[in-house]
Every structure is written in structure tokens, then in C-alpha cells.
Specification:
By secondary structure, the protein is of the alpha/beta class. It is built from 15 helices and ten strands. α6 links the parallel β6 and β7.
């Protein structure tokens, strides 16, 4: 029986549509660039894992992770369109960036605690023991944790000297303490054979989140589907990384050849031990969660410390819970 050409064409079209539907996941993925705030390391592991394990692809994204570094202004680069979203060191940093005129919004926070620490020699047991010691801090500290430490523990500006991202001055002088990152400098100091005490701000009420996904208002509005996919896939990436970091670590060492297996192992162990990713609200509300109460605590700290003018920045514009609320990837 011969069919009318139109009928035959309809059959072919239906077959083509069916084939397309079956192959739909293989269609072109949306390009999405995320820029980190430092050289590749375990602290970025969940994002690299989502690339390595094809998790972003599963959610329809073709993700490029670009490394930041000490000389890279990632906020400027995002504002210039070179990244869709960036890794904020903390939510408070991004609130201040907004006050500075860049309309940036926090959409997820993958570290429920800020990993910043002060490292002292082992005669120091608590923050109060730092009175009279020399404390090496970076210039950014004055717009973040340092006003908080001064107010809480009675430390003074006279005690501070510039931190040069080198542990040798600390190693050489038992009367000094220095800033650091929970997962990094304590390891280097331990390897140098120095016994130290690590004091973590967040254990004493410092409110900040860390390792944020922060995007321009315009991106959140115009690419909300892609932002939602990125947040959910990244949360799955973090869950996977903490279970088996090997796939991401290959990519981390490719981007940052100076990274060692020992350092990666130390960092992953610390992230797990301290519940950086899976603790706090993340345990029940999902990895990457931001809550109204925590965002308010960060904002209130900045206002109280006169580090943010509330007349210039409304708290509601600094963050959104819409993406993390729907992601809900439990540890």
C-alpha cells in the first residue's frame, strides 16, 4: 500500500521527533563559567568533582572552572562578563562588594562555617591568651574578622603586623600568631615541625558563611534556570567529593601542579572533621544552604562594626534562598 507523500513526511517527522526526544540529554549544553578565589585546592573540590563526574552535564551545563589567585580581581572579571558566578571568600565580603557598587547576590554557601583561623604557638590555649602577642594579619582582615576579634577578645591594632602569606616569620618567633585557613597553613606549620594551637573564629560565634556562589543580579534574573542547575549540581559534587575525592583531585592537580596529595588529604580530612560542608543547617536543609537568620547575623555584624552602611545596602538584596531551597541535597 502506497502512502500519500504528506503522510509519509508526517511519519518521518514523528520518527525524527522521537529520536530527538530520546537523544535530548545529548543536546548542546549551556555554557557556564565559575571563577574561584584562589589556586585550585581541596576547598574547591566539590566544583571540580561535579566536572569530573559529569554531574554538571547531567543538569545540562557545560561548566568551566577558572582559577583565581592573589593578583586576580574576580569581582571585576565577573562584572566584565568573564564569569557567570564567582566564589566569594565569605558572604560578608560579597555584601561589602555590593555596597561598593557591584550588584552581586549570594545564591549558595558551601562552607557553613568560615575556615579562617589564628594560629599561635602551643603556649596559647585560647584567644584571650593572645594579648601582648604580635599578630600577623592580611589587609583584608580589617574589613572582616579583625574588628570582630577586637570587640570580642580585647585585642588591639597595636599588636598587628602585615601577614605576607609566608609562615617563616611565625616559625621564627614564638611570640607571634598569624592568620590562616583551617585546611592550609596549619598543615604547612605542622610540616615545619612547629607545635601550634589553631583558633577558629566560627567556633566562637563569627557569623560568616564561606565559599559562596555569588552572581550578578542580571545573571540571577536572566539565567535563573542555569544558576539553579549549577547550585544543585555543585551540592551533589560536594557530597560526592567528600565520599571519594580522587576524581576531582586529578583536575585540581592539573590546574595547580604545586598541589600535593598529602595537602589534599589533610584538607579533605579537616573539611570532614569540622563539618565545614555538611554540618550546621546543611545537615537537615541541604548542602550549600543559606538561611535568613544566618544572612541577618552576617549583615548585622557588618553594620555594628561600621563596615557596611545599611542606607546603601538592603539585606534582602544581598542574598536569595530560592535556589538552595529547591536543591536540597542532604549530606
Amino acid at each position: 500500500m502506497r502512502h500519500h507523500p504528506a503522510f509519509r513526511f508526517g511519519q518521518l517527522a514523528a520518527a525524527a521527533a522521537l529520536a530527538f526526544a530520546v537523544a535530548a540529554p545529548a543536546q548542546a549544553q549551556d555554557k557556564f563559567t565559575y571563577m574561584t578565589n584562589w589556586y585550585a585546592q581541596a576547598e574547591h573540590g566539590g566544583f571540580y568533582q561535579a566536572v569530573a563526574q559529569g554531574i554538571y552535564k547531567k543538569y545540562g551545563l557545560d561548566v568551566t572552572i577558572k582559577m583565581g589567585g592573589p593578583q586576580v580581581n574576580i569581582t571585576q572579571m565577573m562584572a566584565a562578563g568573564q564569569a557567570d558566578c564567582i566564589m566569594g571568600s565569605s558572604d560578608i565580603q560579597m555584601m561589602q562588594v555590593r555596597e561598593g557598587g557591584v550588584p552581586v547576590v549570594n545564591v549558595a554557601a558551601f562552607f557553613q562555617k568560615d575556615p579562617q583561623v589564628l594560629i599561635a604557638h602551643d603556649d596559647v590555649k585560647k584567644f584571650e591568651d593572645l594579648k601582648g602577642k604580635t599578630i600577623l594579619i592580611g589587609s583584608q582582615a580589617n574589613r572582616g574578622y579583625w574588628p570582630w576579634l577586637k570587640a570580642k577578645f580585647g585585642l588591639t591594632d597595636e599588636q598587628t603586623r602585615p601577614y605576607t602569606f609566608n609562615i617563616q616569620p611565625f616559625v621564627a618567633d614564638k611570640n607571634t600568631a598569624q592568620q590562616g585557613y583551617l585546611t592550609s597553613e596549619p598543615y604547612a606549620i605542622q610540616k615545619a615541625g612547629v607545635k601550634s594551637t589553631v583558633l577558629m573564629f566560627s567556633d566562637h560565634g563569627f557569623p560568616a558563611y564561606a565559599t559562596t556562589v555569588s552572581c550578578m543580579d542580571k545573571t540571577v534574573k536572566e539565567r535563573s534556570k542555569q544558576v539553579a542547575a549549577f547550585v544543585k549540581a555543585s551540592a551533589e559534587g560536594w557530597k560526592s567529593y567528600l565520599a571519594d575525592p580522587a576524581p576531582a583531585n586529578v583536575l585540581i592537580k592539573k590546574d595547580n601542579p604545586n598541589m600535593t596529595d598529602d595537602q589534599l588529604a589533610y584538607s579533605v580530612a579537616k573539611l570532614k572533621e569540622m563539618g565545614m560542608v555538611t554540618g550546621g543547617d546543611a545537615a537537615t536543609m541541604g548542602i550549600g544552604v543559606i538561611t535568613d537568620a544566618r544572612a541577618k547575623a552576617s549583615y548585622d555584624f557588618l553594620v555594628a562594626a561600621k563596615l557596611l552602611d545599611p542606607a546603601k545596602v538592603e539585606i534582602a538584596k544581598t542574598y536569595t534562598t530560592e535556589f538552595v531551597k529547591d536543591a536540597k541535597v542532604l549530606p
